[in-house]
Amino acid sequence: MPHPAPHPSPPARRASVPPIDPTSYAPTAARRVRAKVRCLAADTRVDPHSHTWAQVAMSSTGVIRMTAARSTYIVPPSRALWIPPGVEHVVTVIEDAEIRTLYVHQEPGRSGPLPGATDEAANWGECRVLEVSSLLRELVAHLASEPGNAPANERERCLSSLILDELTRARPVRLGVDLPADKRLRALCEAVLDEPARWATLDGWARDAGASPRTVARLFRSELGTSFGQWRQQVLLAHALTLAARKQPMASIAAELGYASASAFTAMVKRSVGAPPSRFFG
Q1: Which residues contact 96 (CB under 8 A, 6 or more apart)?
Q2: CA–CA gap between residue 267 and residue 248 (Å, rounded)
Q3: Which of 103, 185, 233, 270 is a plausible cystine mate for 34, CB 3.0–4.6 Å?
Q4: Domains in the chain, ordered, with CATH?
Q5: What's the CA angle centered on 278, arms 8 and 127, to 5 degrees?
Q6: What's the CA gap between 161 and 236, in Å, rounded?
């Protein structure tokens, strides 16, 4: 079981930057997929913003955290986040990252990236984490990322079609941490996201926030429909994904998250996502 970690100093304040003007990369029916590349340093936060088109957020290197609607997602190079049109989102850079953003034009009446998609049960109207295949990663790397409204050439049209097909085929991953609307609970949840191993119990976090454990437990149930322990387990999985992206061994990840052994951590992962760490962390 996890045990309390030493009380660290508060995290440093993040630098805040505005989003790059997205109109220079607006997708159209003639240019269905536009790519944008941006390199950002760790602890940078891109201000809240939204688009009238769909977006796929991924990274070539480094790890980012995307907060969209009322959930937050860890996005290492092995994952991508689909964000539907109109959903406000915030980017937080966990470690130096080369962020590759895809802007996707959607056909009228379609919520998914590609007309005729075979995954009819998929809800493309909500954010979803997708596995990034080797093919998808290479296709995105070769897609032109210059701003402007020049017409697409044949190569870009072919790459765009293949990217949309790969997105449609990408396996969704059950990974995301819900966030509350209540400001008191939101502040506590964001503190857990920043330092998930700071305290192992609700009592520790409530004491740190100057709140009653009973009040915090009630807010978790009413706001998020879960217990603090279950919610924090999702946070630990997300943080473990960041550590795994750095190629840390499983024993080191388990210790950093407060688990007594790698086997105890492995059991938690299997219980939570139905897959061993080697499969889940990809």
Answers
A1: 39, 40, 41, 42, 61, 62
A2: 18
A3: 103
A4: 15-173 (2.60.120.10), 180-280 (1.10.10.60)
A5: 75
A6: 36
What amino acid is encoded at 15 in this protein? A
Residue 10: the pLDDT is 47
Contact 139, 163 (CB under 8 A): yes
Q: How far apart are CA 123 and CA 131, in angstroms?
A: 16
Burial pattern 127-164, b for ≥16 Cβ within 10 A else e, equals bbbbebbeebbebbeebebeeeeeebeeebeebbebbb
* Cα separation of the two ends of the chain: 24
pLDDT tens per residue across span 105-127:
987 766 666 654 444 446 788 99
Position 143, amino acid: L
